[in-house]
Amino acid sequence: MLMSKAKTQIMYIEDKSADLDGPARIGRVTFSKSGRSIYYGGRTFQSLGGGGGLKANYFDVETGEEFWISGPKKDGTDRLYSGSPFSVEVDPDVANEYWQDIRGHSGH
């Protein structure tokens, strides 16, 4: 029997639990079969289904903390609100793919 491989994708993940701006990462997530849940960093995020308001679209199923998770933009303007004091960290395992394939930079 053939096993289907889980769908993964590089995504932008920003913690919105404390404020409009929070720590953010670029990392590889895994999607559930239905696409309503995302797995990243040992956590499970479930879609708020459009009911999250302006700052979040997913929540951590264990803690209830809210997050903004979306595909990263080519120009790097992933934050919902500009002027954040937090930098966006890029996970080492996706750094080359992110900088070359998404951002279009060579030499990273």
How does the SSE layout of this entry go?
Layout: E1 8-15, E2 24-31, E3 37-40, E4 43-47, E5 58-60, E6 66-70, E7 88-90, H1 95-102
Parallel strand pairs: 2-7
Antiparallel strand pairs: 1-2, 1-6, 2-3, 3-4, 4-5, 5-6
Low-confidence stretches: none
Helix count from the secondary structure assignment = 1
Counting copies of identical and different chains, the oligomeric state is single chain
| Count of individual beta strands | 7
Give the DSSP E fraction (strand runs of 2 or more residues). Answer: 25-35%
- What is the share of helical residues? under 10%
Query: Could you give the distance between the termini?
Result: 40 Å
Strands across the major sheet, in which order? 1-2-3-4-5-6
Structural class assignment: mainly beta
Arithmetic mean of pLDDT: 89
Major sheet details? 6 strands, antiparallel, barrel
Structure notes:
With 108 residues, this protein is mainly β. It has a six-stranded antiparallel beta barrel with strand order 1-2-3-4-5-6. The mean pLDDT is 89.
Q: What would the keywords be for this entry?
A:
1 helix, mainly beta, 108 residues, 6-stranded antiparallel barrel
Give a brief description.
The chain is built from one helix and seven strands. The longest helix has 8 residues.
